[in-house]
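Project standup — Tuesday

K.O.: blocked on the structure for the chain from last sprint. Re-posting the sequence here as requested.
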Amino acid sequence: MGNQATRQSINVLIVDDEESQRGPLAAMVSAWGFNAETAGDGQEALAKLGTFSANVIVTDLMMPRMDGFELMKRLGADGNMPPAIVLTAFGNIETAIQTIHDLGAFWFMEKPIQPAALRVLIERAASQSKLAEETERLQRQLQYQGVLVDMVGTSPPMQSVFSVIRQVAPSKAAVLVVGESGTGKELVARAVHQLSPRNSGPFVAINCAAMPETLMESELFGHEKGAFTGALERRAGCFELAQHGTLLLDELAEMPPGTQAKLLRVLEDSRVRRLGGKAEISVDVRIIAATNRNLDEALKKGDLREDLFYRLNVFQIVLPPLRQRLADLPLLTETLITNLNRKHSCNVTNVNAEVMEAFKKYAWPGNIRELRNVLERAVIMAGEGVIQMPHLPYDFGYAMGARPPAQVFEPECVRLSVGTTVAEAEKALIQLTLQHTKNNKTRAADILGISLKTLFNKLKEYAVETVESA
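H.V.: unblocked you, prediction finished:
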């Protein structure tokens, strides 16, 4: 910190209600090569900090309007308090020490000030401030590279996706997200929303493939009471619900052609009319559409109107399948395990090297959704520690349609003789599975491929006696 150029980059704010104190002090600090600004009390200091980014604050404690205590409380509550050197009159040492302890001040000095000691304190406090700034900058850089809202990925394909999201988010342009099922298209839409000026508004998503054609228009545009049989009250549609926010139209190519035509008109006029209504309602909504369909094929077959496609395809974001971004598997796995631990109250740390190698050799036809499902089962099975191969589904890695080897529990297995009823066989299998899991019913139900509720019903039906697991 002894370098003159380094000191010139350090901003020091001096807060004291006595001009005879703060003026000479500011002149002395400036003579040392620091940038000095002054304030007459805490209230003026807060106003000054709006335009002057202080690396160090040198403040008196006792001042009118707002004293040094309140100033540091305010800055600490906002989470942006620079290192503060507290000046105190003789006899107030205990108060100064308490201020350091309770309010997080950097250090204190008795008046009259010893210039050499103050200079050393400012340099040390500035070093701490610069270190904190550099740490925050590196953390932001790391987050910028590998994480975007709820999305993670350091591979080149995902970095390209992140770049496009950052470019398009601040604009009002429509976005079309294309990618295979399970790649995270809704996460892209949410990221665009969160990084946009509309992030304080609602985010509304509708799955066009899951909605019956008869209800689609009502869901999108709303309806008035009595508009159709069963319309017992007025209902706002997705456009109204997403006012000043973002509306995601998921699986757009599955929307009925007639509804597509009405949607196009709404996009062009920014006005909707509820079913059965007479008045039009102005809407301010950003549209993000998503599809897992091949766009050329959907347009050729007429499943997607060309005019609607051109209206929505202002910015197209193509999400890569997981098999094209295998370098992201470690980060994805770690992130998903963290979330699943929270969901299932488990304490799994990671997967072992054998599991990660198996993950990298697998094609992941179900993409991230499939990875999450595999990990969810593994987290429940493991409970804590590291996920190993036995925690994965027994048929993991087999191509669709291929038959995996029969699963047996060694050294025990179920032996059935001719004449055994289905109920008896089922009871024996349940008992053996519970033995295998040490009576962990959640894991047993998962292995058996049934719900926990079904397992309890079976136990009650077959009068299977068990000892409650911890």
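K.O.: great, moving the ticket to review. Residues 113 and 422 are 91 Å apart (CA to CA). The first helix runs from residue 4 to 8.
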